[in-house]
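Q: Structure for this?
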Amino acid sequence: MGHINTNSLTYNFSQKAQRNLWILLGVGIVMLIVGAIMWHAPEHGGHEGHEDHTGTLGQRLWANLLVNGYFFGGISLAALFFYAMQYAAQASWSVVFMRIFAAVTDYLWIGLVVIFVVIVAGDFHLHHLYHWQDSSAYENDHILQHKAPYFNRFFYYGRIILFFLGYIWYQRWIRKSNMLEDSLTNFADATANWNLNLKNAAIFLVFFGFTSSVMSWDVIMSIDVHWYSTLFGWYNFAGWWIGAIVVFNMLVIHLKSRGQMEFVNPSHVHDLGKWMFAVSVLWTYLWFSQFMLIWYSNIPEEVVYYAQRWEDYRGLFWITMLVNFIFPLLVLMSRDSKRNKSFIMFVGMLIFFFHWTDTFLLVMPGTVGANWGIGMIEIGMFLAFLSFFVYWILKSLSKYPIVGKNHALAEEGLHHHI
Amino acid sequence: MAAHKKTIHGIYNDEELLLDGVKKVRAARLKIKDVFSPFPIHGLDPAMGLKRTRIAICAFIYGATGTSLAILMTWYMMVSDWPTDIGGKPSFYYYMNWPAFIPVTFELTVFCAAHGMALTYFLRNWNLPGVSPKNPDPRTTDDHFLMEIEVKDEDEARAIAMLRETGATEVNVI
């Protein structure tokens, strides 16, 4: 086997690419502002009897902030999970991608800060996304009274801060440890580093496994505070995960097309494509499992969640599900298509957008109800987040060598062949 | 014609030697009939020049058959022949209750694809119960590797030399 030269390969983040991303960010912000100025109140508000906030501009803007914060933050969090999983599984196929996974996790703290700001803003009554933050809501509501201990602010903020700090702490640690690898030429030190990475990855995966579910209940499921689903955490996690896999695929295609990842062979690309296929099917499985049980049993307090999506979001609801299932299934089924850049690009971009609409469908029905829309505000904020997300990832990718040549499985990983 | 051809067995005790041997024998334009090994050897198929398996196409066809069967079955049983009340939901047409039929459709798809593939594999390899084994040497089920080549009479000496040269521990002319 010949030696594959990976020395001094660093991603070159060109001035042109940086400028284009800043322009896209500007376009997004301008669209957002124009959308906010052109916004006008809906003609008929929501329900009678109590104060209705679903038709206000503030509500819509904050709901959008939560959608984007959660979508991109979740992608980064799933990237951290996937990154840790490679260490825990001692996987060699992914050695060439480790720095890409790591770069995506660098966005994590920003995503979590956005989510945290949205939650705190609700307690300062800047918006009404979370019904449980309204203390008057508890009076005549048995279900809310029952859940009051869970939403006790000390308990709530205590666990949210614990989870977020746990994720961020591990992200900083593993990032540093992974970069440290480059300077470890001594075999004993490298082995110690490898074993420590393995151990901490396993601990993090357990921590993530429990907390990611609870985090998704606290941040998203509590919007529909009277409703619950035990599958919710997994379903959200599958959505983050597929988003992260799409981002990895796109970054690899981008880097390969610029000739900066010559060491990535068709087998590597094939394996990353398989993940896109597999996680899409996992997401659909969980989507359908949650939906079918609720549809089948038809219990009013459960089915109200889907009834609302059926009434006000029917088209988007079904298109989101079908696109995210049918396209990866049929297009990426064959071996050849998983090795074809154009197929991966096409399906990746399509399902990336439709997983954003999936997140949109998680947040919007419970916050703006029938007064939803995908207009200048939504597209503008999505573009602004997307360009900043990509900018941040590429910036951190350009800081380090693109492959860890001292990784314990580097030689095996570079010669990966399936 | 058969009288002018000979079958030669080269037996190896290491899979790396065998793999190199296969490459060299093919490069020398000798015809490899088959290779017997106790376990799958990575890279052997392309080295032997075998075409990629078409079992995936079969799997798709069997799976599609299973899906169609399941749809037909659920439609006939649950909608057409005896409309079944599912949670008080209307059942005049298939689409009204389709989510309830998805699990069985999925299961039948997997069932047909898996069983179809297994049966195809056994039939294609003629590997059925009671069929006598084609394995020329029982040691290839334990720790030996066997390359079977077919040569014309005039190539016999060259082939034997080639097998010896690539590290075969034993060469038998059948």
